[in-house]
Amino acid sequence: MPDVRWLMVDYGILTRNKETIHVPSYANEIVIAELEQEETFIEEIRGGDFDAKGNIHLRQGDVFSAKVEPLTTLYITGYYVPNTMSHGLVLDPWRRNEVIVRFLQTAS
């Protein structure tokens, strides 16, 4: 099973967030998926030979993937905006796991 990280979870809405991801030695691709009723705006992903700036916009169900070098450290900058209907709702840990497992099963 791939490594899974829940990004930008502890930050405020419309707050620019910075995440650091250490790509494992056995991985050569990153996948960023918007699984909730939100929109994610990725302003920059950089690290090693990889550099992507701006215009990565994900809505619920959208996926961004890119080839990366193993053992690279990636720095991701972006923010999210919840759907107005989901604003104020917190995804409980059990439901969060369910959403992630469902995504991984359909992505395999």
Briefly, what is this?
The chain is mainly beta.
Task: Describe the protein.
This protein has 108 residues and is mainly β. The chain has a single domain (17-107), classed as Jelly Rolls, CATH 2.60.120. It has 1 helix and 6 strands; from the N terminus they run ββββββα. The strands form 2 sheets. The chain has a 4-stranded antiparallel sheet, with no helix packed on it. A hairpin with a 2-residue loop joins strand 3 and strand 4 (50-59). It is globular, with a radius of gyration of 14 Å. The model has no long low-confidence stretch (mean pLDDT 80).
Overall body shape: globular
Instruction: Give the averaged pLDDT, no decimals.
Output: 80
Tell me the CATH topology: Jelly Rolls
N→C terminal distance: 10 Å
**Which stretches are low in confidence, meaning pLDDT under 50 for 5 or more residues running?**
none
Q: In percent, how much strand structure appears in the residues?
A: 35-45%
Assembly type of the shown chains? single chain
Q: Report the major sheet.
A: 4 strands, antiparallel
The number of distinct β-strands equals: 6
Fraction of residues in helix? 10-25%
Q: Report the C-alpha radius of gyration, rounded.
A: 14 Å
Q: What sequence of helices (H) and strands (E) makes up the elements?
A: EEEEEEH
Looking at the overall shape, the CATH architecture is Sandwich
Could you give the order of strands across the largest sheet? 1-6-3-4
Broad structural category: mainly beta
**What is the count of DSSP helices, taking H or I runs of 4+ residues?**
1
Return the domain count. 1
CATH class: Mainly Beta
